[in-house]
Amino acid sequence: METARTITSVARPEATTGADPDLVGAVRLRPDARVLQLDRYGRVVRVSAGLTRWLGWSGTQLAGRPFELVLHPDRRAWFRQRFSVLLTDAHPHFVGAAEVTTVDGRLAASHVTAVAVRAVEPAAEAVLVLLTPDTRVRRPQLTEVGARVLEGLAGGASTAELAASLHLSRKGVEYHVTALLRQARVTNRTALVAWAYHCGVLVPGAWPPRLAPEAREHLRPRARAGATDTTAEPSANRSVSGPGTCRAGARRI
User: Fold this and answer.
1) Residue 68 — φ and ψ, nearest 5°?
2) Do the beta carbons of residue 21 and residue 31 sit within 8 Å?
3) Cβ burial, residue 215 (10 Å; 0-12/13-18/19+)
4) E strands, 80-209, where?
5) Do residues 62 and 78 make contact, with C-beta atoms less than 8 angstroms apart?
6) Distance of alpha carbon 213 from alpha carbon 186, whole angstroms
7) pLDDT band at 232 (very low <50, low <70, confident <90, very high)
8) What is the dihedral of CA 241, 250, 52, 8, to 10 degrees?
9) pLDDT given for residue 30 in this prediction
């Protein structure tokens, strides 16, 4: 990532004044860069113009506030833990995925790259946070049974094998496969498995295939007894916007 490589090479930031929206610390940014400068307490010092255009937050609105308030609540503890390590150790940066909130309360999927800016001492004097919109991080909404069907498909299991291992009828298995195909907007099982890896639902390189821990944390509650063994067509409102695209919620951008 070009912008991230540029940020990791910066030296000690100097105090800046004035209204230059593309200057954060001592780093001049590309016009579309979405960057915040934080102090060592995690509070926002400056905000780039690109971030304001994307999320709507201005420097005035965020100045002095903890950056983690911009993150979805589920990712705040993660950020605090990684931020504390960044401050005290010699690690130059960390990366991760998180949802951030816009000024009007919507959610946007983002890659987060945090870079420590140091002088001579190991402790960071400031941190630059780069946010990059992520259009593929949205994960599908899976049930527990649907997830096990997906793992089986990725391992090459047939309908009969899945029915035996999951204690479903063949029609019950086909119902879950159809639901997954409709959600992925693909037409065959091979494309479905590729889509699942693309969305980060399955662990790359794992055998036998298994659900990624983060995806498992977001499984929908188990359906009521008897609801999984059915031939009814999945609801149309479970589809996504296009092939290979992970599902986004109605309040997400």
Assistant:
1) -60, -20
2) no
3) buried
4) 93-101, 107-117, 126-133
5) no
6) 24
7) very low
8) -60
9) 67
